[in-house]
Structures are given as structure tokens and as C-alpha cells.
Amino acid sequence: MTRFWVGGYGDDMDGDAEGIGFLSVDEGRGASTLTYRGTAAPVSSPSWLAQHPTLDVVYAALEGSAAVQAFGRSGEATLRPLGRPVDAGKYVCHLAVSPDGRMLIASCYGDGRVIRYGLGADGSIVPAAPDRAAALRAALFGESDAEDAGEPGAASDPYPTPTGEEPRASHAHAAVFLPDGRIATTDLGFDLVRIWRSAGTGLALDHEVVLPRGTGPRHMVMHPSGHLHVVTEYSCEVFTLASARDGSWALASATTASPIAQVGFDTPAELALSRDGHTLYTALRGSNTISALRVRGSGEAVEPLALADSGVDWPRHHLVHEGVLLVAGQRSGTISAIDLDERTGAPRDVRHTTSAPTPTVILPTR
């Protein structure tokens, strides 16, 4: 039996999850059976979960509460709070933990903030100091105290606002640690991938990669080749970024996420990579489909491979596990298991579904 933690939306985010849930996947007679086994830790809207690399500690983004919190394993199917919730930005929606387990990065959709927290030896979150939070706001939005904080002011919207239109807003959405220790974050509102480096106890902007206007970069996955794949929520595309010898990142290629994607109707969510690195999977909310893309060459490009029904409504998150794709359906309140072709990686039939309260993320337990 394989076990997973499940994050979801609670009543403060128009959902019915009562906290971090517990899911089991039982293998038998060549089929996987999913069972949602209840609440592992009561907490408000843990919409994203991240695992510590060495400790049995889980971090939750409490999206409706604008906070993050750590949880330690207290039993086979239970978690206990590891300290109180720590303030974050508005609608914090994603967390990433550094490979050395010493840093947590929170991306905040509501106000565009990217926040760095230290992590203690026990995995607990060290709250960001007030001056550190101010410095990060300055770095993101170019506020007047940026120079005093010792961090560069980041450019705002790289595209001029057309006459008669309201200015766009920054929406940080995800973070990935790069092989050299820097951090890449997406800004869905400004069509940017930002590259950060650690500076003291905070972050300093290194440079930015500007994507075409209106694409809406959302989530990312690091390919073993060193390329960074980015899925866009608005334009239904997958962009591949490559790093040059001087450490700068730039666009290498782009492709549609699905040949049947309808811009304005379909909105891609997660981007997941197969174990062998040959296949990417994205989910299209709207048509409720799973699109598989073949990774070409040494990872510098991808191309559509196959399309399948996700088995859920509004597939917000998915992951690959032992030849099966698990998909969290936010609106249907279900999680599905989809078979993957062993040879090509293409998604096939929905093997099984189980009910789960407004699921938004699935995380394997340690």
C-alpha cells in the first residue's frame, strides 16, 4: 500500500476539505484501488504541500489564511503542527524546499510576493524578519526602500499597458530550485520567469526571462538535462528555457500544450515529468483532459504525444507514480488513477477514482 498526503480547499476558499487528507493506493491483481482515508491534520485550506528532503516534515500553504505551516509525522496517517502558522503573502499558492533542507520559498498569487524562510534543524519554519519581507517587496515592485535594503528593484510589467486597459498585477505562482542553487519563479500576471540568488537572509533578483504577452506562466519542472519546462495558463503552451555558459536563462523552444486546446476555455495547471524524463504531462482544466508531450533531443524541446480523459472535473494537480498518473479533480471532489503506456508513456484508461474533499495537490508520504 502506497500512501499520499492530499491538500485541498476548505470553507474559507469555497471548498469542503477539513485539512490535510490521507490517501492510500492499494495494488492488487494488476489494478490500483484508491481510498481516501480522512483528515491527517485539521488546518484551513492547505492548497499546496511540499516535503522536506530528509525529514518527515510537510509544509502547507494555507492559501485563504495568507500563512505557511510545518507539520511533522505523528502516526501512520496523522500529522501534528510543528510550530504555529507563519505569515506569508496574499493567496500563497506554492511552496518549494531547497535540496539541503535549509530554505523554503513561498509564491503568493494575490500580491506577487516571493518569500524566503529559513528552516531549522527539526524542519520548523523560521519566520521572515520584517526588514526581510520589506526587502522582498522592494525587489519585486521597485519600491523606494529597495536601495536601502541592498536588493535591486525588479522591473514591473515588461509590456506597456494599452490605452484604456487597467494595468496588470503581479501574480507569483511557483518556484523551482535550479542546479546551481539559484531559484526560478513564475509571475503569471507579468509573463515573467524570474531568476533569484540568495543574498544574506533574503533573495536578490539576478535576471528575468520575458515570455510573450498574455501567456501566463504558471508551473515548472526541471528536466534532468538541465532545461526548465514552463506551462502557461493563458496561452496553453509549454516553453522550454535553457541556461547559457554565463548563467543567464533564455527561451529555447515553445509548443502547444495540446493540439485541441482552446485558449480562453482550457487552462493548463500542473506540469509533471515521467521517471525516465522522456514524457511531460499537463492537465487542461475546461476540457478536463491530460496531455502527454514527448521530450525531444536532450530536453531542449517537446512535442504533443497523446491526449486522454482525466477522469475528473477541473484537474488541478497530478503526479506520476509507478506507471500510474494520479489526478486531483478540484470541482468533482475526486482523485483518479490513469494507466500509462509502459513503452510510450501515453495516458490510457482511467483505472479507478475515489472521492476526496476539494483536492488541490497530492504529495507522496516518506
Structural notes for this entry:
The chain is mainly beta. The protein has one domain: Methylamine Dehydrogenase, Chain H (7 Propeller). It contains two helices and 29 strands. Strands 4, 5, 6, 7 and 8 form a five-stranded antiparallel β-sheet that branches.
List the helices and strands and how they pair.
Layout: E1 2-8, E2 19-28, E3 31-42, E4 46-51, E5 57-62, E6 67-75, E7 78-81, E8 86-87, E9 92-97, E10 103-108, E11 114-119, E12 125-126, H1 130-141, H2 146-149, E13 172-177, E14 183-187, E15 192-199, E16 202-210, E17 217-222, E18 228-232, E19 237-243, E20 249-256, E21 267-273, E22 279-285, E23 289-296, E24 301-309, E25 315-321, E26 324-329, E27 334-340, E28 347-355, E29 359-364
Antiparallel strand pairs: 1-2, 1-29, 2-3, 4-5, 5-6, 6-7, 6-8, 9-10, 10-11, 11-12, 13-14, 14-15, 15-16, 17-18, 18-19, 19-20, 21-22, 22-23, 23-24, 25-26, 26-27, 27-28
In short:
The chain is mainly beta and 366 residues long. The chain has helices at residues 130-141, 146-149; strands at 2-8, 19-28, 31-42, 46-51, 57-62, 67-75, 78-81, 86-87, 92-97, 103-108, 114-119, 125-126, 172-177, 183-187, 192-199, 202-210, 217-222, 228-232, 237-243, 249-256, 267-273, 279-285, 289-296, 301-309, 315-321, 324-329, 334-340, 347-355, 359-364. The longest helix has 12 residues, at 130-141.
